[in-house]
Structure to design on (198 residues):
């Protein structure tokens, strides 16, 4: 039985979401523009996938002012980091099982 | 820039499709029931994802009789094998970049 399928998280079943988590796993937090540039995403696409990840509790958002300018930054939650690690090990099992 | 995103294939952006390809990468061909049992999938879900993979040219289907009984078997095409290998290496880059 291909167990890895049941360990793959539906919340990460999208390239952009994989990209978002991959950036947030290796940084404390990242603001919208940094995510947009590093992932080559459009505003709308990035905003909708960030919202979906927030809804699942895997990403948190913080709004603050940097000088006079409003700034929105995103971080992976502890729950998000754990879920993504689990997803990555299921992907590793997939890769090993497909060689 | 997170290049791996652009090397991830949208056709494989689904757990069951990953499972189908993973089975077909290590077998010459597999019939519908074998795929259904080894992936724990429902008839409808499996049929629709197999059809989608056929449409992209990544999977081929063969209908024949085994004794008196009709049998439908599926195989990964050469194109499908190449595309899935490329997808897996992009996933490996994702995993490495998220540690």
């Amino acid at each position: 039985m291909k167990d890895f399928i049941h360990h793959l998280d539906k919340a990460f079943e999208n390239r952009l979401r994989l990209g978002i988590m991959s950036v947030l796993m290796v940084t404390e937090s990242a603001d919208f523009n940094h995510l947009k540039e590093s992932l080559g995403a459009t505003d709308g696409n990035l905003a909708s996938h960030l919202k979906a990840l927030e809804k699942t509790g895997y990403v948190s958002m913080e709004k603050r002012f940097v000088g006079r300018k409003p700034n929105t930054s995103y971080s992976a939650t502890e729950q998000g980091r754990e879920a993504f690690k689990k997803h990555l090990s299921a992907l590793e099992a997939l890769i090993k099982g497909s060689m």
About this structure: The mean pLDDT of chain A is 92. The first strand of chain A starts at residue 30 and ends at 31. The radius of gyration of chain A is 15 Å. The CA atoms of residues 17 and 49 of chain A lie 6 Å apart.
